[in-house]
Amino acid sequence: MRLYSKPSKRKRALASDDLQLVITAMASSPDHDDKLFLAQLLTGFHGLLRLGELVWPDSVKLRTSRKLSLRTTVQTTPSTFSFLLHSHKSDKFFDGDRVLIDRKLSSSPPLDAFASYLASRDSRFPFHPQLWLRANGTSPTRRWFITRLKSFFPDDVSGHSMRSGGATALAIAGVPSPSIQAIGRWSSDAWQVYIRKHPVLVHASMLAEQLTHAPPSYTRTLCGNSLQIHTSINLFLVSPSLDSFLSILSFSLPPLPISH
């Protein structure tokens, strides 16, 4: 019986504001390693990648070229880019899986960062097979990536923060659970532990996102010789207490008179 057990402390999930901080600092940098880090960070976030799928282990004994993504597997279009993971945790048949980043779902920054890195990589190392390469021609390691990550964020952010942040962002955007599981290549519903927000807050964020893009509803009433249009807006509010669920507040704006 665990009388004195301590709750597990999960690292904080990265958010869009966190990514924007790094983008602002590195997007225009001419340094190759800056381009590499930014491309890997955004690809890891939007592709729901494990850090180990982007970098080599620090221990030389654990390194194997079989797990390195290759430049020849990259495919690009004006709105997407993709590459092959040669093996991953849930790959039972070791035939790899393709990671695809789409502008429609991920916006422009990850595509721009990847294109900038790829151009730098190809000009420096046109004959190297590895996709991810540092300026010195070696594959990036976990220590290299984490050191750069820590230069922007405190200790509550780790390599897993990309994957959990990307999953949380998709949940807030209203992406169905089976799609999130497929994008992240999870073999079970264990992916749900990566959502680092209370379900009520996730649902509230989804509703707020829908409200932002949804047009108000209109009702027409005939008043004398003029037609009035009443605008009705629904606001979804979250109670400060998580014990209560969402409340909905409706109100009407002043009517707009329209003459016949």
UniProtKB/TrEMBL annotation:
Name of protein: Tyr recombinase domain-containing protein
Taxonomic source organism: Ganoderma sinense ZZ0214-1
InterPro entries named in the record: DNA_brk_join_enz, Integrase-like_cat_sf, Phage_Integrase-like_Recomb
Entry keywords, A to Z: DNA recombination
PANTHER family, per the entry: DNA ADENINE METHYLTRANSFERASE, PHAGE_INTEGRASE DOMAIN-CONTAINING PROTEIN
Coiled-coil ranges from the UniProt annotation: none
Molecular-function GO term, any one: DNA binding
Segment forming the signal sequence: none
Top-level taxon of origin: Eukaryota
SUPFAM superfamilies: DNA breaking-rejoining enzymes (SSF56349)
A GO biological-process term: DNA integration
